[in-house]
């Protein structure tokens, strides 16, 4: 089968799963930005310093695994700073050459910065923050963003579906990363009205900036959350500072005819029912294996496609049979419709290749 035909077949499989329609088999969608270097025997310091090498390595890894799709066909650890507003340590720079990148969270945003955002807008604050407190972040990620369109074309040419065209996140994640978690959580109790005012101003620019992602007409866009998870925030604060903003970003994504990929790290079980407020058969719920996937199925299984959720620990420490059997359990009990098989969050860098292939084989039979 030619790669274009293979791509079309895989794309239709993904779209049908999202729409809660029957497919010939459960599709497989992975995130392999951490795993690909080890899989393809590329030194991590070389991998993160050359986006062309990195993207080729990710695509070659996906081809070897035989998956239908990848969340992203390129990566740059510095992109994490654009959503966490925290510094990143890199292998071969601050870390050993084969170490994984690390987020360096510290208090870079002050209480006074809430007023700057309220009075001058999010883009004014964020541009200054990225230049002066994150050491010219946009200059660092510029080459990666310039190469991104080519990465998508290379992925499509290989017959692999690139599902996500980038990521959006609500103000709580960026503010929390910039303030540091302990200081930000204190702000929610000490100055909640000011925090909300800054959130509301920030959303104006966040939504406007999102149009740049949508202009490229991606299949989907991540609408992510991690510190905003139910396990960290009381219901009263969650209903005020998390859900309205996340829901709005998902709705804006849908208005652009793009699939919101709700990438939700940590445990969101308490508030799963809220996601029924989003349209049926239009979104992907993508957990990290902390939220009970069987509870997700119980609450949202007839409403929203689920992507997951083979745990990273199982891919690393389990046997091929362990992984295969768990993957088959997911296919039977979460699927076969409205389900896309994959790892919880990200394939870890030290996952066993044979284990990842066992996960894929559960769906493909190969």
Automatic annotation (TrEMBL):
SUPFAM superfamilies: UROD/MetE-like. Residues 165-363 form the Uroporphyrinogen decarboxylase (URO-D) domain. It comes from the Bacteria. Signal peptide: none annotated. PANTHER family: METHYLCOBAMIDE:COM METHYLTRANSFERASE MTBA. This is Uroporphyrinogen decarboxylase (URO-D) domain-containing protein. It comes from Sporomusa silvacetica DSM 10669.
């Amino acid at each position: 089968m030619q790669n274009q035909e293979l791509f079309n077949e895989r794309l239709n499989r993904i779209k049908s799963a999202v729409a809660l329609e029957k497919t010939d088999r459960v599709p497989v969608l992975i995130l392999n930005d951490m795993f690909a270097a080890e899989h393809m025997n590329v030194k991590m310091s070389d991998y993160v310093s050359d986006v062309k090498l990195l993207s080729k390595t990710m695509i070659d890894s996906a081809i070897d695994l035989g998956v239908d799709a990848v969340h992203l066909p390129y990566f740059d650890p510095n992109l994490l700073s654009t959503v966490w507003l925290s510094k990143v340590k890199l292998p071969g720079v601050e870390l050993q050459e084969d170490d994984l990148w690390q987020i360096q969270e510290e208090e870079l945003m002050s209480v006074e910065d809430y007023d700057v955002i309220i009075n001058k807008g999010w883009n004014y604050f964020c541009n200054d923050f990225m230049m002066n407190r994150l050491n010219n972040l946009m200059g660092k990620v510029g080459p990666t963003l310039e190469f991104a369109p080519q990465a998508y074309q290379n992925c499509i040419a290989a017959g692999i579906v690139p599902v996500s065209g980038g990521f959006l996140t609500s103000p709580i994640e960026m503010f929390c990363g910039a303030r540091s978690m302990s200081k930000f959580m204190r702000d929610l109790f000490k100055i909640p009205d000011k925090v909300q005012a800054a959130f509301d101003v920030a959303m104006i620019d966040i939504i406007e900036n999102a149009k740049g992602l949508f202009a490229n007409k991606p299949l989907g866009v991540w609408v992510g959350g991690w510190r905003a998870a139910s396990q960290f925030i009381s219901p009263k604060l969650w209903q005020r500072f998390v859900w309205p903003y996340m829901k709005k970003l998902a709705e804006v994504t849908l208005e652009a005819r793009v699939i919101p990929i709700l990438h939700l790290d940590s445990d969101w079980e308490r508030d799963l029912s809220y996601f029924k407020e989003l349209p049926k058969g239009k979104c992907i719920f993508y957990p990290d294996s902390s939220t009970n996937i069987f509870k997700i199925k119980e609450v949202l299984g007839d409403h929203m496609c689920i992507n997951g959720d083979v745990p990273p620990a199982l891919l690393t420490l389990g046997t091929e049979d362990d992984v295969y059997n768990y993957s088959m359990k997911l296919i039977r009990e979460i699927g076969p419709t409205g389900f896309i098989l994959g790892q919880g969050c990200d394939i870890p860098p030290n996952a066993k290749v044979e284990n990842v292939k066992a996960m894929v084989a559960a769906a493909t039979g190969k």
